[in-house]
Amino acid sequence: MPQQLTRRALLARAAAAGVAVALAPVIAPHRAFAARDSFWRMDATTQAELVRRGEVSPLELVEAAIARIERLDPALNAVVAPLFDRARDMARGPLPDGPFRGVPYLIKDLNDLAGAPTSNGSRLFAEYVAAQSEPYVARTLAAGVIPVGKSNTPEFGLIATTESLQLGPCRNPWNTEFTPGGSSGGAAAAVAAGLVPFAHATDGGGSIRIPASCCGLFGLKPSRGRLGPGEVGGGDISVQHCVSRSVRDSATLFAAAEYRGSDAVLPPLGLVTGPAKQRLRIAFSTRSYTGGAPHPDVEAAAQRAARLCADLGHEVVEAAPAIDGGQYIDAFMTVWSSFAAGVRKIAEQRGLDPAAVLEPWTLGLAALYNRKPAGAMEAAIAHFARVQHAYDAFFERYDVLLTPTLAAPPVRVGEQAPTIEYASLYERVLDWVDYTPVHNGAGNAAMSVPLGTSSMGLPIGVQFAAPQGGERRLFELAYELEAAAPWGGRWPGTV
What we know:
495 residues, alpha+beta, Amidase signature (AS) enzymes, eight-stranded mixed beta sheet, three-stranded mixed beta sheet, 13 strands, 37% helix
């Protein structure tokens, strides 16, 4: 499930009227790259290194990204608000001396970038232009990236595919009949197609991990509280980071953009540069927290990942946290649907007909929340605390939990469109995303690693979770998996 705006952000907005080790043999030596279009095969770290060496300029990288977007994006619809002239101006001017100075990037259209539109994938905010950048986006800009546009997202990030009525369907570059997932679907489609080397993404129930799985990318969801003091507790279950082709891009951006205030909930992680020697005790389960079993292709991918971890010397044990899946879904959907109820109220306060500016899925979620009894939100948050305690206890016995990321490979565009009859769509969505939302409620770190392929040739991600604050453990394991089963050189045939 995807990321959504917090109630505070929605109300404020209404008042004001988002290639590493494996690629090294492919991308060296640098002087071999004369043609502009060759940049797309490089990860962000390599592109930034070329800029630092003076071998290319930021403007060259930006122009190459723009040319590729103009050539390929009409078939994908990943970039919904081009910022080309702005990006060219940024590339010509002084840039922050961060680790990604001059590298093209996309900001998700749920998140504010000063002077750029933020539609939230909704007709309700179709005309909204942000006055200032959100704190996390500002920290990302300080790393030196150049936004060339905003990426496609479903309405308010409330569903796991990306095909809003406002922005139109985004398509998976591995096969354009299929979804890239959501809610960071535009970001993942763009990175998978080489439009940009990495892109901003958010995760309130799986919105980094789901599209990473669908598009063959690496996607790490940070712990709750990692990004700042305002992002812990209550109903704020969303976090921000990126989707990338290489682990090092993700780790470097994480270190550059994490919150370092004196009131930080978690101490800064800093830069993780490679695998650890320590062997891990890895719990493994292909059953979801609700007891569901995955598609055979997903089962096979997870089993292969478990064998790979064992071959690397890790201890793999079949085990999973014991939680009541039904109670968790009820708590999660209470929090999830509260955001839909909030945007419906905004529409009503503006004197608008909610059915004219909000999608059927959003209206169905709003109705779900409005049927909840008094105290439902408080009960849901209390349940999250109990689930977090259960996961904390579990991770005292195991270092990492390995599961599928999704219950099935990517679904076709339209199968989970927001216009489908609500009750049917509710079941389809929850069945598909049966592995990711629990980590948002528990608040722990989790990542999707592109280790599998379906019988139709579509990517399948495998999920690894660690305790709250356990991002170092995940990054170190990801570096090891990337070296053992390189994915950076795999590209969709459509690109």
